[in-house]
Write a structure and sequence with these properties.
binds FE2/S2 (inorganic) cluster, 9 helices, binds flavin-adenine dinucleotide, 5-stranded antiparallel sheet, alpha/beta
């Protein structure tokens, strides 16, 4: 059992949980994730480790309510417990002093991009960060991102905060002005695809963190397979980070939409108070 020590609302349907998990916190690195199960028979939810404290033995996770299981998790309060927490899973980010880097976080992708940005800054990089969302209510951790960046840019699709437009617009402007050695981008699949298309002509190595459907998180079930270059990779053990220029985003988006009907059915039952079967 893992105790929730703190719960916070970060914006529209966005929640932060700080969970007591000393053994995972001791080993966690940026880029890694956990899989949690709230109770017996609950679905497994993969979530990136947005922050950790080795001293306090805690993990911070940030999630968006998108369906049945994340809605159930959002119903938890400080003092409640989570049945299982498996991790840290996945390959840690390759943090080095590259020179100048750009870190891009879209929507809830700001959470996983934060520890990577912090570690890249600590490693001596000059860091430009761009965070963006559909509107201001979906943005969070502006101050934390600013603290670990040389310069932070904010965009919203509707212009309610920062610059009106997409993160990729700002990224293109930076690439036109600066010699950038590496780009990290985490957010919705379509955003990561656009970022990959933006950096490709500049030849800047670009890393994305994929979030396909995951079940066991051990490389055994095959649920998280993605096409990268000419190879099939399992995001849970080979990733979740991959070379953005080699990822087949169209296939990944098609696979992500595969269970949409079933997910909507589950959510509809949840809305009308029915039990999930
Ligand atoms: C490595 C990894 C890290 C992630 N980190 C975060 C994070 O930090 N914050 C966050 O808000 N979300 C994160 N996600 C996505 C999160 O796991 C899903 O939003 C969640 O499982 C949805 O469950 P649901 O029942 O509420 O929604 P559902 O109605 O079941 O699904 C809604 C959408 O979520 C996706 N999804 C559903 N189940 C899974 C699953 N088992 N694995 C992956 N995606 C799924 C589907 O694409 C679907 O379209 C991450 C996913 C992965 C694989
Ligand atoms: S989640 Fe089962 S192989 Fe990756």
């Amino acid at each position: 059992m893992y105790k929730i020590l703190h719960k916070e609302s970060l914006g529209t349907n966005l929640h932060l949980l700080e969970v007591e998990a000393p053994r995972i916190a001791r080993k966690a690195e940026s880029g890694q994730f956990i899989i949690l199960r709230l109770k017996e028979e609950a679905e497994r939810i993969p979530l990136t480790i947005a922050d950790y404290s080795r001293e306090k033995g805690t993990l911070t996770i940030i999630f968006q309510e998108v369906g049945f299981s994340t809605r159930e998790l959002a119903g938890c309060q400080a003092g409640d417990t989570i049945l299982d927490l498996v991790g840290p899973l996945g390959v840690p980010s390759e943090i080095e002093n590259y020179g100048t880097v750009v870190c891009v976080g879209g929507g809830v992708g700001i959470a996983p991009v934060y520890p990577i940005t912090r570690d890249l800054k600590k490693a001596g990089n000059r860091v430009f960060s761009i965070i963006g969302a559909r509107n201001s209510g979906l943005l969070f951790w502006r101050e934390k991102m600013a603290e670990v960046s040389d310069q932070l840019f904010i965009t919203t699709d509707d212009g309610s905060e920062g610059r009106k437009g997409f993160v990729s617009d700002v990224l293109k402007e930076i690439l036109d002005k600066e010699k950038v050695q590496r780009v990290w981008a985490i957010g919705p699949m379509i955003m990561m695809k656009v970022v990959a298309d933006t950096t490709r002509p500049y030849g800047v190595p670009t890393i994305v963190s994929l979030n396909p459907i995951m079940v066991d998180g051990t490389g055994m079930c095959g649920a998280c397979r993605v096409a990268v270059g000419k190879e099939t990779k399992f995001a849970c053990v080979d990733g979740p980070e991959f070379d953005a220029h080699l990822v087949d985003f169209d296939l990944a988006m098609k696979r992500a939409a595969f269970f949409k009907d079933k997910e909507q059915q589950a959510l509809a039952m949840c809305k009308c108070g029915g039990e999930r079967r």
